[in-house]
């Protein structure tokens, strides 16, 4: 059994991680920390866990995390980078669901995240946890940077095109729509039911932190070439789900059938990526509460613009599920262990 | 392995049954019938089942259902009653998720359901599948009448009071609220998104088919005495979930603490019924996609009206999950086998 | 023109009041106060008011409210009671949308609201603003207590029965469901989109502040007799709307037709109360964004329990619209002036 | 008073038209036709109209439409084209909310709409009713083609860029999101509450009928040059509203400030188009139930891609409201008469 600790289990990513870990056959959940909630039963805060998760939140200093095999950080940005070094030194493998180790360029990270990085030396060794790209490196990672939700959906959708070198890299467009759980479980007027329901809006058009993360991943896939990406996130009135609508211009003739074949070949053998048949329109609910990503590729009106539709559950493949997928790889388990959850639809 | 057939798998109850059965370790799903969809892949209709349920719908006559161990009917009312006798004769155990075998009084059934009953002799032997009342009879049932969604939530909430004989039986009130999936997957203007969202209404105040079913169950719990129940169902803009708010008048003094103890004792040992601590207000989402029922009991302002709050997921404990719970009992499996699904919340 | 000031315009009641007042032909909106937002354009906070409401929030001390004809308080409880006396002394008529002047029994008010009342002498003269009961007194009110949202829906639904003396007063039940805007525009985790959507729950079963207000009104209608009321509020995932399902026991035989006639007679001539035809089930959306209350009366299964369904928009007839209705009466205007807004449905 | 008839008042566009016309001070609503509902009270189908619209549906042949001044067609595509000629001959001015007269190229219309056009001669004289482009022609139109919902939002957002000639015309992208009311009030499984809520999807990526309509309008704005547009519509779980996110590549340097000025100048004096301040993200709810269009323009990261955000209420500015705006122009009334409805938000 893998002894697992969770730092910060009071947000939506945290409770989803608990839901998955509680049903994972190879995991022994040993500690959940929260300074603010120390002493409270976890299931008092999340009644959905009643009689299934019998743990109390503990203060970080009482958690004996260094005795765990793996520690997940489901914390705000800037927390894991302060604690990771000590855990790594104690032989613990760290999986950060926040952004601390996602960007290899520390200066760029500091610009986008507005703080000084506390562990630049760990950034250098950290592994970006997109298994569909990086599986071998993940296996031996000591510090795992779990991808952001938008970057997961956008990269999986664009990788086949970028890797194949068939689209222009200077005018990629990612028009992405997220459910409200992506905004986290913090009390803010903008996230109130009455503010967010029955309405639709873009946000962060001027610049969003997931932009450099996506560009880094696509640039790597393009052999280091620069990426010109316009990324516009939107808030849509639903709980879970990301729908990325991706636009790229073909630089040479590729038929719609060949595009389809390109995507199918790229993800053949991937447990969690489902390339749908030609003409499909994946719905976010078709992946709800599961670790799946569904993708469809179109070439409308025979023009030179390719449209890719990519959907995930932001809390699962976009956060907690992908983190457990990475843990499975790191500990030599079957990659899908504890993750074969059928989507809940309707 | 239990060889299972499903008749009518194209509604919400059907797809939920498939989701649960597909993950059940002791079940081999052998056939899904649908006359209208024969030949179609099940996962083409329900993309959430892609790569997990690899079956096609077959016409009923091609399904070889008589070779199954158990056949579930996830059909409209009036279908199972026509096919059950032949299956029972072939040694198949029949689990009907519709209403055909729920009412012991055939004349009353015919009045409420507006059709002639095709198998009154099976009504006599059919077992009502509320395990928390009826476990022993279920074990040997050949025809299992799976309870309605409202009747499940209402009976579980009122049984402790009625069995203990502490409330007036002539003025029980069940004010129940259901998510829209309870209305089924039929194309009707009233169930359109635009009609049902962001609004709330009662329906069927003059009389609803679940009224006699609830009264029958409570009467049985009251040793056969008559029940005077006012049952008002409502439609609330959510997908899954029933919230029953139940009102009963005490006929003798019982303190709030004793009421709490009464409920806790009644459901001690029940895997799927969770009596919450005093002062609780269960939310439907705390049982979403799970087979749990959560109950809280109140005595507001120290008056003689008891208020019970009871929540279930209508598609699980109110339909498909409870049907699988009954199958487990009927086939001697652990009652919770394949049903330990943590609620999906948020 | 009636010169109007608004104290506290940053909540949902406030912005709805602005929407209505901005279109009112006899109103000149002169000041909106908010200490926290002083200097900000109102339409920067509420873009729906852009180019229609050209005002800035001002600090209360800069608002010259005493020069208004009427001042609305769309503030938390406990604010109006501190400022009303000075305004009344200056000849301003005060309309409080909060609860400060709703309960005639100051001790009971202090018990339920948990604070000392600052103006008990004004409580004595304040008029409860339910025009369908109180129209003549409202005409000359200097301090108007605008009813709560639940009390409006519940009282209008029960008044005909209570006034006619045909139901038992000791076991009335009000099972009420509110949209989330009733919880106000404050940043609280419980009101987040992700917490409130796709779920249903009761709250405050042990005791809710609107209980004494309803009881006071019904008792008055019953000639001062005591009222035994069980009031259970629920939160339903929609923005606007209250649906009250009301249960009362007949104390003498009254046919369903006579009940219908009773309700129709009671509200004949009322502009904002619509008694629907027998067998109706009013939906909250049928009154959305309007000042209407729709009511239907049932006697299910011919039993002695009467069921009344009463729906309003909590922000309009339950708050801002009713306040403007009261203002119209107080200033001798047509009662419906500026309030003939057709419901927005869908 | 303008004597108005409505053909087909049973859909969402129809009921919204009735809501607006019922409050319009210069309109006398004389007939509403529906073959299927002839004889039924309009307010029995739409309770929100109770006591405000006192009309019955009549069969088309009983409606005496030729005695109206204006007749609105709120019908499926293909109806108006059959009846318009007779009405025009009788001196009636026809306003078609469907697509029959929107495309000038009859062959292209027949390809996209899959039927033979019944009145090509009227297509030639019909006027496209986008007042912000076409006001003078609208004034004297006998047949008015009211624009589609997506085309309204997309054209208003792109027109300033296209007219100014500052963007490439061969790679325009319109990623548009619509509320579910856009799918109409027909009983179809795909539009059920349970199917459409809490999920997000694209549809019609291969080709949508609004594509040629948008291209026609933009081409006209570009002096007849060809338009290369990728248009991807999506369904988002809300009732009303369209959010168009528009992407265009600059062909010469235009600063963000100059883009802002360009938009402000283009729509100066337009009653119903609100160019928001730099950095804004309009929400669909900020125009709910109003005839407004709100637009914001961005140039993210200083790149050469311009992003325009454009929101409307699809039932108002995208249908019924715009139709009334056109009627006002056609009959010499103030353009905003009966349309100064403040958005309902929340």
Summarize the helices and strands and which ones pair or pack.
Four copies of one chain form a homotetramer.
Chain A: E1 2-7, H1 12-22, E2 27-33, H2 42-45, E3 57-58, E4 70-73, H3 80-89, E5 93-96, H4 106-113, H5 120-125, E6 127-128, H6 131-139, E7 143-145, H7 149-164, E8 172-178, H8 193-196, E9 201-202, H9 210-221, E10 229-235, E11 242-249, H10 256-267, E12 273-275, E13 293-298, E14 305-312, H11 316-330
Parallel strand pairs in A: 1-2, 1-4, 2-3, 4-5, 5-7, 6-7, 8-10, 12-13
Antiparallel strand pairs in A: 8-11, 9-10, 11-14, 13-14
What does this structure look like?
Four copies of one chain form a homotetramer. With 346 residues, chain A is α/β, with parallel strands linked by helices. In chain A, 31% of the residues lie in helices and 20% in strands. Chain A contains eleven helices and 14 strands. Chain A has helices at 12-22, 42-45, 80-89, 106-113, 120-125, 131-139, 149-164, 193-196, 210-221, 256-267, 316-330, and strands spanning 2-7, 27-33, 57-58, 70-73, 93-96, 127-128, 143-145, 172-178, 201-202, 229-235, 242-249, 273-275, 293-298, 305-312. In chain A, helix 2 (42-45) links the parallel strand 2 and strand 3. The longest helix of chain A has 16 residues, at 149-164. The model of chain A has no long low-confidence stretch (mean pLDDT 97). At the A-D interface, strand 8, strand 9, strand 10, strand 11 and strand 14 of A face strand 8, strand 9, strand 10, strand 11 and strand 14 of D.
């Amino acid at each position: 059994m893998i002894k697992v600790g969770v730092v910060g289990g009071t947000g939506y990513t945290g409770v989803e991680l608990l839901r998955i870990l509680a049903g994972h056959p190879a995991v022994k959940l040993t500690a959940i920390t929260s300074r603010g909630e120390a002493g409270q039963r976890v299931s008092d805060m999340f009644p959905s866990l009643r009689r299934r998760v019998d743990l109390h939140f503990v203060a970080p200093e009482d958690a004996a995390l260094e005795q765990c095999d793996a520690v997940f950080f489901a914390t705000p940005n800037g927390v894991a980078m302060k604690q990771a070094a000590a855990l790594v030194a104690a032989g613990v493998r760290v999986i950060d669901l926040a952004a601390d180790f996602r960007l290899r360029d520390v200066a760029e990270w500091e610009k986008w995240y507005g703080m000084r990085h506390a562990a630049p030396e760990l950034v250098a060794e950290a592994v970006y946890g997109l298994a569909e790209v990086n599986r071998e490196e993940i296996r031996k990672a000591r510090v795992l940077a779990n991808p952001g939700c938008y970057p997961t959906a956008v990269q999986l959708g664009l990788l086949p095109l970028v890797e194949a070198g068939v689209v222009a890299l200077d005018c990629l467009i990612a028009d992405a729509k997220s459910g409200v759980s992506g905004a986290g479980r913090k009390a803010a007027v903008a996230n109130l039911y009455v503010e967010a329901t029955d309405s639709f809006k873009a946000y962060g058009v001027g610049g969003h932190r997931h932009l450099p993360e996506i560009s880094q991943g696509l640039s790597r896939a393009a052999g280091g070439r620069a990426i010109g990406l316009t990324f516009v996130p939107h808030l849509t009135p639903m709980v879970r789900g990301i729908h990325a609508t991706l636009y790229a211009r073909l630089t040479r003739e590729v038929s719609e059938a060949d595009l389809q074949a390109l995507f199918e070949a790229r993800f053949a053998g991937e447990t969690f990526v489902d390339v749908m048949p030609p003409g499909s329109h994946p719905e976010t609910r078709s992946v709800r509460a599961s670790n799946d990503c569904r993708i469809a590729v179109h070439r409308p009106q025979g023009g030179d613009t390719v449209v890719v539709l990519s959907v995930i559950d932001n809390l699962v493949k976009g956060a907690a599920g992908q983190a457990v997928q990475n843990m499975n790889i790191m500990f030599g388990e079957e990659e899908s262990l504890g993750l074969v959850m059928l989507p809940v639809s309707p």
